[in-house]
Amino acid sequence: MKVGHFLDAGDAERARILDVARRLGSVRWPATVVVVAAVASLATVAGTAVIGPVLLYLCLLPLFARLAPECEAPEGLLFGALGLGQVAIAASLSVAHDWGIEGLGLMVLPVVVASVLFPPRTLIAFIGASLIVMLGAAGLIDPSRVLDEPPVVLLPIGVLLCVAVPGAAVRASDESSRGTAIADALTGALNRMALEARVSELMSGSHGDGVPVGVIIADLDHFKAVNDELGDAGLECRTVQEPREG
């Protein structure tokens, strides 16, 4: 499956996205209860029609969670899932009559998830898509009020950006720190910090899926010396023998 550049996470980032998604999955049901309670309270004053789109989306969430690890580009699937969440919120608000504009702040919820899930370039794209959906929903709900009272839209936009911009900065800092750990400043070669970072990632993934992790540390100069002395067959034999003895 081909995805755009802003969704092309790469193998390492893709593994991180799946790990974070698994961790977020552990709080999905408590979060669902809170969201359902909030929408139900809105339904008491805006009508029961507001419940439909959100409940339909919440029913689809387990399907997205199940498909993500099996997908070639899970970042694209999760981006679409969160985008569908924004559309579901907008659809609910569009039938909430006078309360629709006041509920635009709910669209910050998928942005919070995206800010911890995606790398900065993907998060920025999601923020842009969320703003388009928010403005479209506001124009659909009550265009005259949007023109007469701009703060009713500017305020939720400001809240969304206040949440998203620091999230993007933190993720950018995380990527920068990982790059520093992986590349030696002088030679550009991988260093010990890279090993520690990679082992940490593997252990984190192991805790999530239960797959055992093994790490082999090899001295390439030693291997070259063995190859020069014993040849390829001797090197292969030693490569199998030494880890067993260790």
Q: Could you walk me through the main structural features you see in this protein, from its secondary elements to its overall organization?
A:
This protein has 246 residues and is mainly alpha-helical. The chain folds into two domains: 5-182, no CATH class; 216-246, no CATH class. The chain has ten helices and no strands. It has helices at 11-25, 28-46, 51-67, 74-94, 108-117, 120-141, 143-148, 151-182, 192-209, 220-245. Helix 3 runs antiparallel to helix 4 (74-94), helix 5 packs antiparallel against helix 6 (120-141) and helix 5 packs parallel to helix 8. It is elongated, with a radius of gyration of 24 Å. The mean pLDDT is 76.
Features:
246 residues, mainly alpha, 10 helices
Short description:
The protein is 76% helix and 0% strand.
Class from secondary-structure proportions:
mainly alpha
Number of strands: 0
Terminal-residue CA separation: 42 Å
Number of domains: 2
Which term fits the overall shape? Answer: elongated
Mean residue pLDDT: 76
| Helix content class | over 70%
| Strand residue percentage | under 5%
Q: What order do the helices and strands follow? A: HHHHHHHHHH
The biggest beta sheet is recorded as: none
Number of helices: 10
